[in-house]
Amino acid sequence: MPIQKPDSDGRDAPKAGAGKPAKKAAPLVVHSYSGFKGEERPRAFELDGRRLTVLSVKKTWQEEAEHGRRRKTIFRVYAHDGRSYDLARDANTGEWTLEPFARDRA
Questions:
Q1: Are 81 and 63 in contact (CB under 8 A)?
Q2: What integer pLDDT is reported at residue 100 of this predicted model?
Q3: Which residues of 30-44 are buried (b: 16+ CB within 10 A; e: fewer)?
Q4: Integer Cα distance of 104 and 62 in angstroms
Q5: How far apart are CA 76 and CA 60, in angstroms?
Q6: pLDDT digits (tens, 9 = 90+) for 85-102
Q7: Beta-bridge mates of residue 90
């Protein structure tokens, strides 16, 4: 086990990353069609300062968390930039997130 060298004031040097809060992903801004059930499907979203228009919703499915009663609806969308994205809406909070693209669900 390596020995830590003390700082100039005699205290132990902090370990890398110690005391820093973990970064939380910023919520995704999604503009959606609101039908009689509320926010039903995404029409556009903002990513890296750009507004991307959803040209089509390719697939929609729901997932439930293993712990608790958290459910999210995931929309596989095709945007005007020629790419597909998985956008998820948390049923409890209404918060949208960008999910990792899962090719096995294509």
A1: no
A2: 86
A3: bebeeeeeeebbbee
A4: 15
A5: 6
A6: 999 999 888 899 999 876
A7: 72
First-to-last C-alpha distance (Å) of the chain: 47
The whole-angstrom separation of Cα 42 and Cα 56 is: 9
Per-residue pLDDT of 15-43, as tens digits, reads: 444 444 444 445 689 998 776 665 578 99
Transcribe 3-45 into DSSP letters: PPPB-TTSSBPPPTTTTPPPPPPPPPEEEEEEETTEEEEEEEE
Place of tokens 């979203």: 45
The first and second tokens of residue 96, run together, are 């949208």
Token output for 26? 């910023």
Phi, psi angle pair for 88, to nearest 5°: -115, 140
Question: Rounded distance, CA 38 to CA 54, Å?
Answer: 18
Side-by-side strand order, sheet with 50-64: 29-35, 38-47, 50-64, 71-79, 84-90, 96-99
